[in-house]
Structures are given as C-alpha cells and as structure tokens.
Amino acid sequence: MHALLLKAAATALTIAAAAAAIVHVSGHLKTAAAPLHPAVVGGSAAGAGVGLGSDGRLHLTPSVRSGSVQAVTSTYDS
Amino acid sequence: MTFDEVRFEALGSACHVLGVGLERGRLAWATAWVAERHDRFSRFEPDSELSRFNAAAGRWTDVSPELEGLLRAALDAHRLSGGLVHAGVLGSMLAIGYTRPLRLGPTAATLTGAAPPPPLPDMLEVEPGRARLRAGTGVDLGGIAKGWLADRLAAELGQNCLVNLGGDLFARGAGPEGEGWPVAVGDTTLLLAGQGAATSGVRRRAWQDGDEALHHLIDPRTGRPARTDLSQVSVVTPTAAEAEVHAKAALLLGSGLAPAHLAAHALAWRLAP
Questions:
Q1: Cα–Cα nearest to B156, from B36, B268, B73, B9
Q2: Candidate from B166, B187, B195 with C-beta closest to A55
Q3: Is the ipTM value over 0.95, yes or no?
Q4: Among the partner residues B13, B182, B186, nearest to A78 by beta-carbon distance
Q5: Residue B207, domain extent
Q6: CATH code of the domain in which B27 resides
Q7: Which DSSP string do the residues of B206-270 spell out, in sequence order?
C-alpha cells in the first residue's frame, strides 16, 4: 500500500511538472529581452527581426526606447 | 520642452549643442571649445597640431594629451573594427582628390596612388606625451574625431546636455522631459540617456571624377572609396566614439555582415540600402 502511494505521488508530480513546463514555455515563445532578437520599430510583420521603415531598417535592443515626442536633434551623415 | 541650444559650423559640419539648466555662458564656451579643436586637429590647417604631426612622420614627436588621446582612439577604432576603421588612409584621401575642404571642390584624382595601407599599429606608435608615424604615412582623424570630441565635451559641459558634432552625438542626462533626449534616427525618435549615436554614409562628400564615382569613405582593404550595398548606417552605442566606429565598420561590411557585427556591438541600428 505504501509503495502504491509513492508511485501515485511520483506520477502526479511528474505530470504536474510537465504541465507547468508546457505553460511556461508557451508563454515565452519570444522574449523582448533576448539579445539576439532585438525589438523592431516602424516595422511590418515582414519577418522575424526585420522591420521595414520608409527609408531603412531600425533595430532596437531593450536598452534603447523610442518615443512619440518631437526630436530635438538628429544623427546624420556629414 | 525647456532647454538652451546653439548651432554653429565647425569640423567641416553643422554642430548643435543643447543643455538643460546650463550656467550662463556655457554654450558660448562650448562653441569656442569645438572651434579650438577644429583648428588643432584639422588636416586642412597647415599649422594645426595634426598637420605638424603628419609632417614629422618618421620621428618621435611630442603631442598634447588630447592628440595623444585621439591617436589612441584611432588605434582602438582599428582594433574594434577588425581594421576596417583606419585613420591611416590619408594617402588614399589625397589620391582621390580630397586634398582640401570639399566646399572648395576636390582636386584631380590619381587613383594609382590609392593603395591599401599597412595595419595601423604598424604605422603609428603612441607613448605618453609623444607619438611616431612611419615615414611617408599620415593620419586623418576625420573619421573618429567628431564622436570622440562629442563624448568629451558632453562630459565637461553639464549634467543634462546633448552634444551633436556633425551628426555624431552624445546625450548626457535625462533630457528636457526626464525621459531621455529625443533624437531622430531616420524617421523614428529614440530617447537617449547616457548614450551616443552616429551615422556614416556614402551619399554626402561624394563627387564624380571623369567616369569614376568617388566619395570620402575609404575601404582600407582596397585603399579606394568603399563599394558597399548600404548607403547609410546609423548606430546607437554607449558612447559617440563607439557609435562612429561601428557605423563605419557596418557600412564597409555591407548588408550581409553588418547585422551580425551590429548585434554584437550596438544598442540600436538602422541600415539604409
């Protein structure tokens, strides 16, 4: 009887761990913090990691934020 | 938004300095600070410290702490870019006709004189207070000076300021609204705080010499103007100096390799075909 209870408990624990893992993985199919998958600004759903702006492609890592305020200056080729 | 700003021409480019809560007279001081560096580090000024250093190639020369810093930055840029950002391409610059400020027009190109330079560490030695160039060579700091100077001016100017020297910029502090300095990169506004940005391209400083389309960005692998499928690269990194280096390296690498390089070195980037 004791062995049977142990087997049942182990089986239940295994099933619960598997279920928890499935839930966790399903919720993290893509993470914005992943350094090799930078976020995309101004893009369409053209493809993973690629956003097409009007004149180029802009990639952001989590260290840089975009904003809707008017820019006070710009970076440009001189 | 409440900030003070000044715009002026220096380093062959349009410059823009902004600050929040700056003491009276600081923007005028910043303008003079940049103008003085222009006079000292321009290769077009015959009496500049850089011109005198180039003229003394072959022997050890005393250099100011700032020129020493710039020369060390040139060696760092060469190392960080795997040799792609090379301050020792002065011979090629002169060969393609970039012998004077382009507002005066280029001179005739003699591309036979445009050859790949040796690795920069083989051309340039730097020790505390002095440096030596290999005889017959010279350096052009135009590819690294603006970002390097933007970082240093921002560090001296104030706690909340933005220094933009010809598009190579450093944003220090939280900006006018506390969210970072809003900076346009292409058609997007990024909020930069404690970060630098720079853009490198082949659209500007370009000209035609007979059948030859020339521009100022020399590929040290060929000694000639770069052939790249990108027209412009903008980069955000922790400093303006790094941004300038990686923007140039990415432009030279082209669209195939640039994303991998920038994924390893940049915080944000924009590639324009």
A1: B36
A2: B187
A3: no
A4: B13
A5: 4-272
A6: 3.10.520.10
A7: EEEETTEEEES-EETTTTEE---S-SEEEEEESSHHHHHHHHHHHHHH-TTTHHHHHHHH-SEEE
Q: Assess contact for B251 and B202: CB atoms under 8 A.
A: yes
**Do B268 and A42 lie within an 8 Å CB cutoff?**
no
Residues of A in contact with B234 (CB under 8 A): 56, 75
Phi and psi at residue B185, to the nearest 5°:
-125, 105
B230: nearest CA partner in chain A: A56
State pLDDT tens for residues B135-154. 999 999 988 999 999 999 99
Q: What gap in Å lies between CA B98 and CA B45, rounded to an integer?
A: 14
* SS3 state at B59: coil
Residue type (1 letter), A8:
A
Nearest-angstrom CA–CA distance, B139 and B133:
8
How far apart are the C-alpha atoms of B73 and B244, rounded to whole Å?
Answer: 11
- Assess B189–A contact: CB distance below 8 Å, yes or no: yes
Residues of B within 8 A of A36 (CB-CB) are 263
Closest CA to B11 of B244, B195, B265: B244
Q: How confident is the model at residue A33 (pLDDT cuts 50, 70, 90)?
A: low
